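Task 17 of the worksheet. Students: predict the tertiary structure of the chain below and write it out as structure tokens. Keep your answer in the requested format; marks are given for formatting as well as content.
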Amino acid sequence: METIPLLGFLTVIDHPRSGFIGGLLVLNPVGRPVEFHCTASLKPNRAQEILFGNALVPYLFGEQIAQALVRKSQANLSFLFTDSPGVLALQDFVEQPLIFVPTDDSENEPPTPEAAQSQDLFSFSTKRTEFPQKRQPLRGIPGLSVVRWKETFVANLPLWIPDDRKMEVQAISEKLIDYTRSIDFAEPFTRVRLALDEAQKN
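Model answer:
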């Protein structure tokens, strides 16, 4: 019996009271939830901030929080999506293509711990934003090399797809076309953020 391919949507928020919290929403091909996982809050200590420097966010988001979420999932994930650039560090630890989806919140990720202290990074919008073709949100992320990700458009949505010997942008883009008929790749992140926000109220 053939296993139904599933999509994972993974993001990390910086809650002003709790710290970094990650969430993973797994959807079936028609956009219905199959699994949801979240992490406990995580706050880096001062020693980590000093020793990791600009590499702290990719380490916390990709290697610590995102890996923990993927391990919790029992789903047969075909693709992983994120709107948090730091999560892209997870790609070195998973076989599935990890695709970056620019959203309103992609610009809010802290480049350094010092910058995070002066910003409200927990705000988000449920309104879809149209992104101009020339926008390149993956340039210059501190502590993370993003040259392996290439921008392409799938059903008019800009996506950044890993491109190396094992993964090719064209092949991945063609596989994603079928999902766009029932799923807006930017929308599930709103669900994850709302669920994480609700969890912090309990």
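Marker's comment: The radius of gyration is 16 Å. The longest strand covers residues 6-15.
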